[in-house]
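Worked example

This section walks through a single chain of length 148. The input is the sequence exactly as stored; nothing has been trimmed or padded.
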Amino acid sequence: MGILFCYDDGEDMEGKVEFLEHTADLKIRFSAESLEDLLTLCARTLRDYLVGPLDAEGGEEVHTAVEGEDDVERFIRALNEILFLLQTRRFMIGAVRAQRAGHAWNLLFTGCKGIGREAATEIKAATYHQATFEEKPGGIEAVVVFDL
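Given that input, the structure is written out below as tokens.
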């Protein structure tokens, strides 16, 4: 049994984050109503895990696309892009817009740069080990293991 957090930003995004038991790495189950909500929830959870809670609303944008043969591959690539933005570019993500385009997801990250906080820890990568991405009635549920 893990630690469960329910997220509601007071506007239109709700989701659940459950930290699951794993021997050496970080395993999380994310649940949200849409792809955009899921990716926003992932970005905010990873941001808060790395640097602590903060308000990352801002007018800056970063565009990218992730490709893959299936949703699991696209999801893992999106998470690794989020980690790159947070840890390397120090871009604190507040929201994610996503559009499906064949074998790709076009992503627009909004947030702000250079908050000034140093990361308390590091996440090396999202892995394919035990990764799932399932669309269910009422939303999407995804599980991922992060290499620490």
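What to look for: Residues 21 and 41 are 20 Å apart (CA to CA).
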